[in-house]
């Protein structure tokens, strides 16, 4: 009764309330976008604390990104106010996994200060192992092995558990051996990769039931957001933690768990040792045997008031009354978008089975989007076959229709979106309102699409931030390429020279580099000059000397060509002749294609500048732009990293066959791939509160080649009554809304502009040579432009930082 008028509860609808107030036993909230699932989780945490059902440290909340965890902490803080006794464990699977693993590192053969390897390190280690096995690393690239191993780890498979047939596919049957060797090598290096953060945790729990039990007893309440995107390893990990705790005595339960004394600040970083827990670790007697000396010490060291009020403790239930684990998962099968990374939407469908007696709550009212937006998104997702199906309704007004705009090309697309944002700001200002840029997002399918927007916004002086990944010009391959250009433009740029002197590998080892540095310092000359001087003497060993001489000759040649050639052509020559492009071409990894694509995009972006100097100046301005976090800014991110977020206005560019749905997904996974793409489109539209604006470009240059595009099939799946069709400002022609073939959007965007570039002519020629609308196949296959890996691992993996 006391609870019924708590302010945070009265804000909820009856179903949401049920999900919040059902604190005992398993609860699944299965509901569509914007129905308040995350809000339910947050409120539930506040409620648990408010009702004195657990101490903060007895709550484990798993979010999909660190950003989401931060937001949740803030909101809980606002609702609960003065809970000074620390915060629940909130974070991603990875960040919580690493926290646990550090405390018991010795038990899995690591030291507590183990390092977390990033992908590059991982590949370097694997490469050595591949070579040590006598395998040709061109035929059996380390990156492919890395992907295989990640896949196994996502599925919770240790080397022994990998199916023999599967492992045999790599390295003439040596896959398993290599995986085993890799794990051993990591132990010697005192390192773990991302997959290990969970896999080793699972192993730890399985091999040490007492450790597992500590955590099972500790976490009285487990909450999981975005449950539809958990993979097998995450699922296993959750299952272990959520098993029923053996009954303990009432006294023990009424006391804070022995592990509860940490009271760490919410900002506590992953790496920091957690004093309270170290203490607790020495305590290996089950809580049921009453206050142990260790427990007493714990209590003495961290006395109240930080511990919360007496009343709260008195209200704690005895664990013996709790028959089932209090786990609450929320998710939406229609938003499962990580299947390609091993997520199993089945986890959500199986919940009932895994947690018998689970209360399943369905929420149908969407509080986020206005009517047209929600209707369009619902109609789109209805085209998927593999779904549970659910109703979504809003009591909001119909609002604006989903706007679909055809642009001539991607440049016009960026220009039009920039103008629309400015327009919205002007209109708001005229009404005497504020149109905060924080409420505007641009959600792209592939990260290469970002470059055009970044450049446009810089020109406009419009603040933006790229979320979940580096900005275009900060990507490693772009920095490398820029370093070459900088050395050509300013031979004294030591930092740039250092960056590329041995990239790609030219056999210039540490010794040679040290020599360069020594010479440069002694003679007070730039490194390039030192290189030129040293390559002419025999102080250096012949091999590095030759390599250095060749490189310096190239730089000499490029410097001359700079005077005669257009700078973008020069850039292409440099990247080719230096072997840099080749380095990525030979690299058969998943993200190599994306990097090559980014390089092409870089060269293409240079066209817009008069000369190399102008271009480089532009870049330094871009790089310098401080991305002050408190500044209002447009967010640019991939659709994948937009999950769970919401904005007043959402721009969705690039809705073209081949790009979205993207070709690789269709090629690799067929119908399942298409359905995942469609869910991604659904996620995109449902991010919008008031305005969803979809764009497609009739022409897009990919790999430096023009291709003409067919509008995405998803556009046809949006019911006409919820859509408003526009043409970008630059266009003058009409629309082919009907009678232009199977797609009512087919001819849009292909009219009117006055462009007559060779690219356009090529595009013209290609148009009509069949395409999705008449042959069932997209017109172009932009292989490898979709660097999913970089976007997906974005926020999620910030555990390493
Ligand atoms: P997604 O599937 O996209 O993650 P979700 O189901 O997690 O969405 P939330 O983000 O929790 O949805 O909620 C969507 C929006 O609706 C938020 O702005 C939230 O504050 C608001 N909201 C949720 N429930 C209510 C309610 N009962 N009354 C008013 N606003 C609500
Ligand atoms: Mg959510």
From TrEMBL:
Keywords: ATP-binding, DNA-binding, Helicase, Hydrolase, Isomerase, Nucleotide-binding. It is an enzyme of class 5 (isomerase). Residues 10-370 form the UvrD-like helicase ATP-binding domain. ATP binds at residues 31-38. Its EC number is 5.6.2.4. PANTHER family: ATP-DEPENDENT DNA HELICASE SRS2 (PTHR11070:SF2), UVRD / RECB / PCRA DNA HELICASE FAMILY MEMBER (PTHR11070). PROSITE patterns: UVRD_HELICASE_ATP_BIND (PS51198), UVRD_HELICASE_CTER (PS51217). Pfam families: PcrA_UvrD_tudor, UvrD-helicase, UvrD_C. It comes from the Bacteria. It comes from Pseudolabrys taiwanensis. This is DNA 3'-5' helicase.
